[in-house]
Design a protein that fits this description.
Layout lengths: L1 E8 L6 H13 L5 E8 L6 H11 L3 E6 L5 H10 L7 E4 L10 H10 L4 E6 L7 H17 L8 E8 H8 L8 H7 L4 E6 L13 H15 L2 H31 L6 H34 L6 E5 L2
Parallel strand pairs: 1-2, 1-4, 2-3, 5-7
Antiparallel strand pairs: 3-8, 4-6, 5-6
């Protein structure tokens, strides 16, 4: 059996030697499996590419796809899917920072042999994250699953095994604004989860800040569902009905009791409330329009600068 480890890399010069050593030990424990490593250098500006080239010279099972600049993790994973060898029976996506422990690899392969096409790791807890990150992550999964037509397993990351036919199914998806967690889930096939405890980074610093995570969450929600567009239509109907009922109530008070019509304060509250609703709805429409705009350009998702052993 041939297994490929797909590893997106962005400025991981300190983590890569540790990752290499850990995965080499796992490979030695599985003598009946031929492992290969497919590193996708996502425009690293440190010594990551140089280290990878040294490994490729020494080990024929190491492949490198180096992108012309940093296109983002979603593009790097897609590049890896596209350059996976036809001899590969299954692909395992892993980060180089060792937060997803390599001892998941034998567990994933065991599930593959049981007949599963997609095997994904699910975090048992998020102790390594801050309180804010744990809370916002929980809210994201709840919001995504509430709005999406195909709910996503909570706290399932990118670390997963994909069978050959699952890889081929993902290759068929042409969209450019990609949310890989959603796409992994969208293709279907027989899937199973493997619980694990996510570790702290072995070296280096995270490349994600809260603003990037917020934009990533928006991309995921808008990529996975159009419910938000329909939702605001219903909200508009409800506000209109409420305004109609309130107008009738004011009219009755004027006719029956002679009460004066509410003044400036209530008028301003109504105007500001409706204006806020309109701006929010325009913002949501704008998010979807931006996705359409980016898709209509039909630019390539990534550009390859260099390939080694591919």
């Amino acid at each position: 059996m041939n297994i490929t480890l797909l590893v997106p890399v962005y400025n991981e010069e300190n983590a890569l030697p540790l990752f290499w050593q850990a995965t080499q030990q796992i490979a030695q424990q599985c003598p009946d499996i031929t492992f290969s490593w497919l590193f996708v250098n996502d425009g690293s500006t440190d010594a990551s590419l140089g280290w990878l080239k040294q490994r490729a010279q020494q080990h024929p099972h190491v492949q490198i796809v180096s992108l012309s600049r940093n296109f983002g993790k979603e593009a790097a994973v897609t590049a890896g899917l596209n350059f996976t060898s036809v001899q590969t029976d299954a692909l395992i996506v892993m980060d180089a920072d060792l937060q997803d422990p390599p001892n998941l690899i034998p567990l994933f392969i065991e599930k593959l042999r049981e007949g599963f096409d997609v095997v994904y790791g699910v975090r048992e807890n998020r102790k390594t994250d801050s309180w804010l990150k744990r809370t916002t992550a929980g809210l994201f999964y709840k919001a995504y699953n509430l709005l999406s037509d195909r709910p996503m397993p909570p706290h399932a990351g990118d670390c997963r095994l994909l069978s050959r036919r699952a890889v081929e199914a993902l290759r068929m998806i042409p969209e450019r604004e990609r949310f890989m967690k959603g796409l992994f889930n969208w293709i279907g096939f027989k899937s199973i989860s493997v619980p694990f405890t996510r570790q702290a980074r072995a070296a280096g610093k995270t490349k994600w800040n809260y603003w990037q995570l917020w934009n990533f969450a928006l991309q995921g929600i808008t990529a996975g569902s159009t419910v938000l567009l329909r939702l605001w239509a219903y909200i508009g109907i409800c506000i209109s009905l409420a305004a109609l009922l309130y107008a009738g109530w004011i009219s009755l008070q004027k006719i029956i009791y002679g009460n004066p019509v509410s003044g400036y304060a209530s008028l301003m509250v109504a105007i500001l409330f409706c204006s806020g609703i309109q701006l929010i709805s325009l913002g949501i429409i704008g998010e979807y329009l931006s996705r359409i705009f980016m898709e209509s350009k039909q630019r390539p998702l990534y550009i390859v600068d260099e390939k080694i052993n591919c």
